[in-house]
Design brief:
Two copies of one chain form a homodimer. The first copy, chain A, is an all-alpha fold. The first copy, chain A, has 22 helices and two strands. The complex binds potassium ion (2 copies). Chains A, B: Pfam families: TrkH.
Chain lengths: ~475, ~475
């Protein structure tokens, strides 16, 4: 039997911690004097108490380490427990959401997807906006720790290529997950503070700047206005672009930079490929925008830049309704969302390094095909890619694509049209945020969808955040035996 | 230097043979007394003469066999040379097409895609309809021979899993490609004749029955009416379903059946998976149709059956405009087209066996992930799938999906909307035929597209028919060196 107590203990502590963070919005609403603070008091009380009880109930089973199966269970169940409790303020608070909407919003927050079912964001009490920001900000740091500590250990989705590297850099000095997490946290907090200050400098209120900094550095994408970043001017767009870009880079490089390493970012193949892809897409889309809507102007460049970086980093802010930019831009934004940022960041989707490994393999194979006597091996960052990593990456890609197909069909069963179904499936599994079409596109939101569709999308965000394979492992009957 | 003469010799002979088949439509138009025969005379003369000249010019370089590179070159150039000459009757004849349309129609014919740029099919002279049927019929037999003889040798797209098997069955007795081809041809002709007789029995005119038999057994999908199979009744639909299904099965099994083997079809894993998938999709779509349009009736079942088998086998006939069947059916038809039939048939797309191999690999990996001490190897038909085959299949899938993305973006650049671009890319690369939407959907056709889009689609059909990887090998600079 799988002993779930060590997992329960950690989950309990994390849930209790989440409850503590609810005191932030409580204070915000108290300070604003808007009378909405009791919802957060109530939520915090329930969450802290339940979390503590779970931890206490499991405390007698705590061991010094976790088995592989327990690690799988922990990695996945945390992304169900936290949104379950994170949903409480939406049910009890000013939004007065039903369970479906509240769970969707919390899952979308904690997985940093950023799709919202709330409308009238501009009129929400500050506590609620802050809570959405906190959910994404906590999700973001959780994702980096998961990507750097847990996924490489679990050998999921080819993340093991980063294992030796992360441990070379940090493992010898900082062997334990908690210490890795603390190093990363310092950088994460620093980036968030810098981002908030920069937003404030562009004229954003300190409150909006803080919440947006939290949803920028987590590449989450929740905004405080129904117009998303359309509510702000050029300054905020450039600041947002810079920090979304920084948030989609591998955080281990920042650790190395602080350690005095020379240009670690520039020497990282996935960073170079990510930057190059952005340059190409921004040029193509600016050119298209210049020819159709804006003429050759700063605004054409800025709109292209902001939205490309937003979608490719998986943030999902929109500064304009790019559904109106013509078919080329629409198709580009769909496929850009399927590329994604760098591994070891808060970004999501297939991710640049997987394409690099897949393309390296295809290149080696093509050479092998016409020169069968030669020996061609795929390389990533100069090292031969092992069959193990290759198969993991391949499995991730196939499962991702097939999942987009299956989720699209399920969504279409609930009556959503083809574009909404396919783009909804893709944006949820890739944790990007906006889909295509008038309903869930950059100018729409997910409020009008039926409940079944919302649950399908909530599960999809969960599956996508766990890099597909973790969920596949969990649903295997064999996993639960002996 | 690559000696292209042996390739040129074979191409020349094939082109001349194509010219000879133009005498069929010539006779048909002469017999119908419609005055359209001179176009075929002219086309035949040009084609036979040019083909003969090419063959003669290359005859001095003929060797007893082909090198690997020459085989790659032959396999690909034949799918450019034949449509180039096959386009002549469309330019010179009653359709009076321009070069773009004529090449598109011929490429769509010979690759058995079945997308058409011609309208007013019902009023076309018989010779022209027969020519479209002949193009697909020749393409169909060419595909089977390519899939059974050439692709396994080239180790492209995982087709090498069928190498040992095909040679076990036939290689020892019939070691040469020409003899394999002749065995297959007997079956191909027999099936075509049976299909034509069955269509005639349902009340189709002998001419329509013959042309449709040719485009059914080749899973091509060209029809003699703008309404496709909407022009016919229940009998034709059931006959069509049966023969489209038979045409999408591996032809090597028919050879075994004639050789007295016991139930070779039932013992083939891809046949079972293909049939099961069809059953599930037909049930789901009949149920949806019964609930929305037709009630629980024979017509709901028949419409579902015919169109599912048509799209999954890659034939592309439509008996109704399934764009009107609601979002679930639309999404289903899109993804069914990305499954495809069995390898070693005239069917196309990703194909069932590749999904089976990919899923087997994912299953083995998932078990490995939670039980690292065990040894789990993916199996197909009871045998361990080698890393070589695994990588080929994976490369095919990735290249296919990425190509759909790239072609979609290119099509959207020409101004096509999102659904038309994405479904057009998929239907061309998968050689299915109809796309989605009002323009290129089952009730539309490709006539109204701009010329650039038509060329992009023509190239996509070519790339898809060559199972992606052959083209990748050819465009490598290294291929052409030394
Ligand atoms: K996001
Ligand atoms: K077809």
């Amino acid at each position: 039997m799988l002993d779930v107590r060590p997992v329960g203990y950690v989950i309990g502590l994390l849930v209790a911690t989440l409850g503590l963070t609810m005191l932030g919005p409580l204070v915000a609403d108290l300070a604003a004097g808007n009378g909405h603070w009791p919802a957060f008091l109530e939520s915090a009380a329930i969450t802290i108490m339940t979390g503590t009880l779970i931890a206490m109930a499991c405390a007698n089973g705590v061991q010094s380490g976790l088995t592989l199966k327990q690690t799988f269970l922990l990695t996945s169940s945390v992304w169900i427990a936290l949104p379950a409790f994170g949903a409480l303020p939406f049910i009890l608070g000013a939004t007065d959401s039903n369970l479906t909407d509240a769970f969707f919003e919390a899952m979308s927050g904690i997985t940093t997807t950023g799709a919202t079912v709330l409308t009238g964001l501009d009129d929400l009490p500050q506590g609620m906006l802050l809570w959405r920001g906190i959910l994404q900000w906590l999700g973001g740091i959780g994702i980096i720790v998961m990507a750097m500590v847990f996924l490489p250990e679990l050998k999921v989705g080819g993340m093991q290529v980063f294992r030796s590297e992360a441990f070379e850099t940090m493992g010898k000095i900082l062997p334990r997950a908690a210490e890795i997490a603390s190093r990363i946290s310092v950088i994460y907090v620093t980036l968030t503070v810098c981002c908030a200050l920069a937003y404030t400098a562009t004229g954003m209120t300190p409150f909006d700047a803080s919440v947006h900094a939290m949803t920028t550095i987590s590449t989450g994408g929740f905004a405080n206005s129904d117009a998303s970043f359309g509510a702000y001017g050029a300054g905020a767009h450039y600041v947002g672009t810079l920090f979304m870009f920084l948030a989609a880079l591998p955080f281990v490089r920042y650790v190395q930079m602080l350690g005095g390493s020379h240009m670690p970012l520039l020497r990282d193949a996935q960073v170079r490929a990510f930057a190059m892809t952005i340059v190409v897409c921004v040029l193509a889309i600016s050119f298209s925008l210049a020819n159709t809507i804006h003429g050759f102007s700063e605004i054409a460049f800025r709109e292209a830049l902001f939205n490309v970086v937003s979608i490719m980093s998986g943030t999902g802010y929109a500064s304009a309704d790019y559904m109106l930019w013509g078919p080329f831009c629409v198709a580009m934004f769909f496929f850009i969302g399927l590329i994604g940022g760098c591994a070891g960041s808060t970004a999501c989707s297939v991710k640049v390094f997987r394409y690099q490994i897949l393309f390296a393999s295809i290149g080696a194979q093509v050479r092998q095909l016409h020169s069968p006597s030669g020996i061609f091996q795929p390389r990533y960052e100069g090292r031969v890619v092992s069959g193990d990593v290759m198969n993991s990456v391949m499995a991730f890609f196939v499962v991702f694509i097939v999942s987009v197909g299956i989720v699209s069909v399920l969504l279409s069963l609930t009556g959503l049209d083809f574009i909404t179904s396919v783009s909804g499936a893709a944006t949820a599994l890739a944790n990007v945020g906006p889909g295509l079409g008038t309903e869930i596109g950059p100018a729409g939101n997910f409020a009008g969808l039926n409940d079944t569709a919302k649950w399908i999308l909530s599960i999809s965000m969960f599956v996508g955040r766990l890099e597909m394979m973790v969920v596949l492992v969990l649903i295997t009957a064999r996993f639960w035996r002996s």
